[in-house]
Specification:
Helix content is about 20%, strand content about 45%. With about 150 residues, the protein is of the alpha+beta class. A hairpin with a 2-residue loop joins strand 6 and strand 7.
């Protein structure tokens, strides 16, 4: 009877060790934003800037910070990411000063997320926005453009 008990005890002990080890070593989630919206002065009430909000990220309860690099584009077909016109570190929203966009018809934003001070393993997220007119000639909207 003793060999049978020993035979059962080994798999049970292995199962308990595996379960506790898996719980301890669970990787913490730190996933970059998947969506962004940009609101011009008429939409956001920020007269001197564009309100940019990111969402669709996962920090699993960790402290998080976002670093933004803004690249104004000279035309709507440009995709030049060599010289950033503006950079900022903040939470999940920033205000981009209109003076930094220089009346550009398009801008690209690169967002990097940090969880507890460590960069997300999924790289950075890029979003492009194109200026579009509205029925009110004094206003415009920033439409998300596929990259």
């Amino acid at each position: 009877m003793k060999p049978f008990r020993t035979f059962l005890l080994i798999p049970v002990a292995a199962l308990l060790f595996t379960c506790s080890k898996t719980d301890i070593n669970q990787p913490l989630v730190c996933q970059q934003p998947t969506t962004a919206i940009a609101q011009g002065p008429c939409e956001s009430s920020y007269a001197d800037g564009v309100l940019l909000k990111v969402s669709g990220y996962d920090a699993a309860g960790q402290s998080r910070q976002f670093t933004y690099s803004v690249f104004p584009q000279r035309d709507t077909t440009s995709g030049d990411l060599t010289v950033s016109g503006y950079g900022n570190a903040s939470n999940d929203q920033i205000i981009i000063p209109l003076a930094k966009l220089n009346n550009a018809p398009k801008f690209v934003v690169t967002v990097s997320m940090y969880c507890d001070g460590i960069a997300a393993h999924t790289g950075s997220s890029n979003f492009a926005f194109v200026k579009r007119p509205t029925a009110n000639p004094a206003c415009y909207v920033w439409a998300l453009q596929k990259m």
